[in-house]
Each structure stands twice: as C-alpha cells, then as structure tokens.
Amino acid sequence: MKQINVGIIGTGWCGGIRANTCSSNPLVKDLHIAEIKIDRLEEVKQLTNPVTATTDYHELLKNDDIDAFFISATPEDIHYPMAKDCMEAGKHVFLEKPLSLTLKEADHLVELAETNDVKFTIGYSQRFNPKFAYLKKCLSDGTIGNPVAGLVSRHITRGLGHKIGGRIKLSPAAMEATHDLDFLLWCLEPAKPIRVYSQSAYGVMKDVTGLEDAQWSIVTLDNGVIITIGSGWTMPPGHPNYSGTWIEFTGTEGMLVMDDTHRDVVLNTMKNGIRLPMSTMPGEQVEHVFAGPMHDEGVHFLEAVALNRSVMVTPKQARQVMEVYMAADLSVERNEPVNLPLNNNDRSSIRVPKK
Ligand SMILES: NC(=O)c1ccc[n+]([C@@H]2O[C@H](COP(=O)([O-])OP(=O)(O)OC[C@H]3O[C@@H](n4cnc5c(N)ncnc54)[C@H](O)[C@@H]3O)[C@@H](O)[C@H]2O)c1
C-alpha cells in the first residue's frame, strides 16, 4: 500500500480534527504539524504523535518528504499565501474555506494547482454529511423529479459568531451560507447561477464584531431553479459550537424536507443544563467513531492523494461559490439584485474584508 506524508498548518479546532484523522489513517506514514500557539501545539502533539511539531510552517515546506498539506489556520487572510506557498513547493493542498479573500487570489490558486499539477480542494464539509448526500441522491436519480426550488436555513451560536467575526470581517454568506451554496450549486450542476438578491439584518453582533447577525440570499439559476439560503450566528450559547440546518427542496415529482437541527440526542445535566451533543458543523470524535462529516472529508483527501483519485470539491467550484457570495454582499450593499458572472465594474467595487 502506498503511504503518504502529511503536514497540517494550524491545529486549532478543525486542524486538530485533521491531525486526528491523519494520525489514525493507514495511508499516512508520517504526520507533521505546525501551530503558532505553543500550548495547542503541545496538546495536539500529545494526541497525534507527529514526526515534526513546529511553530513555523515554512520548516515543513522545506521537507521534500511531505506530499500534502491540510491548511486549517486562521485568520482567513492567510489562506491565500499559505496555499500559494504549499503549491509552489509542489505539495497537494486541502484548504479550509474560504478559498481566499479576493477573486484575483482565487484565480491565481486555481491556476497554480493546474500548472503545478497538484491536487487542490476546499473544505466544504457538508458534502460529507449523509443527510445532505441523501438530498443529492434524490435530485440525481429523479426521485423528486426535476428541481424547482430549494431552501436552506442555517444557524450557529453567537459564541461562534464572536469567534469568526472577531478575526475577520467576512459576512454570514461568506462564512456560513457558503457551505449551503456550495452544496446546492453542486447538486444542481450543470445549471449556473445568473442572479442574486440578498438582504442582511443587524442585531446583537454590530456592537461586538461590527457584522450583521443574519443574511438571506435568493439565487436564480439559468434553468429557472431558485435557491434561498439563510444564515445567522446569533443563537444563544445553548450547546457550544452548535449548528442547526433546515432544508426544503421541491421538485416536479416530490419534495424533500430535512431536519439537521440535531434535536435527536438531548443530554441534561446538573452541571450544564440541556445540551445537544454531536451538533457541531465539523462533528466530533465519539469513542471509536466520528459523528459528523469532517473526518470522512479528510479521509477522502488522503485517498485522493495516495491513490491518485479526483478530489470531490474542485477549486473551480469553490471559486464559483465565492463569486456568488460576493455578489450577495454587493446586493446587500446596493439593495438590488446583482447579475452573475460579475462584470469588471462589480468586481472592482468589492471591498477586501478587513481583520
Ligand atoms: N468545514 C467546517 O465545518 C468548518 C468549521 C469551522 C471552521 N472552518 C474553517 O476552518 C478554518 C479554521 O477554523 P477553526 O475554527 O479551526 O479556527 P481556530 O482559530 O480554532 O484554529 C486556527 C489555528 O491556526 C493557528 N495559526 C494561525 N496562524 C498560524 C501560522 N502562521 N502557522 C500555524 N498555525 C497558525 C492558530 O493559532 C489557531 O490555533 C477557518 O478558516 C474556518 O473558515 C470550517
């Protein structure tokens, strides 16, 4: 069996899961980790037994034996330089969303992957959620007929809203709805998005992060299908890092309604009150299994590299998603629908998000 050597850059929440996936996978020979927080580096080192544990990821880039990298570092403005560094060093790359902060950077990364002939994919983990996969199946095999209209409503806790908005000023569409946009656009291929109308609302987040609490976008595709995607990060703490999703999809022959709000397991303790375990977006390790999509997503990338298979999320698809959420943000700003693809005037009026 061909084994590969893998590096993880940034071993926080998601990077910790990536390291855990790699350390227990027989396709991975050596694991190497880079993390600037010494305590976290030490913690993940104890859990995953890497060959190298460093605070400087450039050290890993110099190691010719490393085949592939997971880039899970924040804030999001470092995604582009890190992915660029890795691909220029000839490494395969798994990059957590977002792909980059500007379309110019995104185009450069798409091009780099092609010219350097490396595998490059983006962490749209909901594609590995079995419930989401079931919707994809119902659309692909015609169970609900031809697609007509879809809706996804996703809410996460304000704790996560603070965490995300505290490090970069990206909208709910860019940081949350992005997963659902990716998923529905993938399901509906080869149809292409042609128009977006989006509105956002302020609530408690404005004083804390300066960002909106919620954003809703209607996207029209060139085959007439409409998708409505809502996202918010204002839920009271409840279960830490909770993410709940409700989906409705109508077709000419049926309708699928999907509850992914994780109300099926309720834990009530004197210490913490009511909690909803296994309700985070990436998922979590539970004894001998992983409850959630992120572990399978990591394995898929390892298999793509080790067995020379295609990645599921292509960089071009991720770039398309990016263009749609940028158009949604422009629509909010202008208070009018925005056509896709974006023209040069639209592209030049998009502001680069600040930290
Ligand atoms: N797919 C999903 O379900 C999902 C869920 C949450 C977050 N995300 C994405 O994953 C990314 C990571 O999110 P997170 O919640 O794990 O963030 P996090 O803040 O918990 O972890 C990021 C880590 O990167 C480290 N870091 C920063 N600069 C570094 C550098 N130069 N070298 C090495 N390490 C460095 C930080 O110290 C931190 O520990 C984000 O971009 C986010 O958009 C995806």
Strands, helices and their partners?
Elements: E1 4-9, H1 13-23, E2 28-34, H2 38-48, E3 52-54, H3 57-61, E4 68-71, H4 79-88, E5 92-96, H5 103-115, E6 120-123, H6 130-140, E7 147-157, H7 158-165, H8 172-187, E8 193-201, E9 214-221, E10 226-235, E11 243-251, E12 255-260, E13 267-269, E14 273-275, E15 284-286, E16 289-291, H9 294-306, H10 315-334, E17 338-339, H11 344-348
Parallel strand pairs: 1-2, 1-4, 2-3, 4-5, 5-6, 7-10
Antiparallel strand pairs: 7-11, 8-9, 8-17, 9-10, 11-12, 13-14, 15-16
Bound molecules: nicotinamide-adenine-dinucleotide.
Nicotinamide-adenine-dinucleotide binds at residues 9-10, 12-15, 34-37, 40, 57, 72-74, 76, 78, 96-97, 123, 125, 281-282.
- What percent of the residues sit in helical stretches (DSSP H or I)? 25-40%
What is the number of domains? 2
Give the biggest sheet.
7 strands, mixed
What would the principal axes of the Cα set say about the shape?
Answer: globular
CATH topology of the largest domain: Dihydrodipicolinate Reductase, domain 2
Number of helices: 11
In the CATH scheme, the class of the largest domain would be: Alpha Beta
CATH H-level name of the largest domain... which superfamily?
Answer: Dihydrodipicolinate Reductase, domain 2
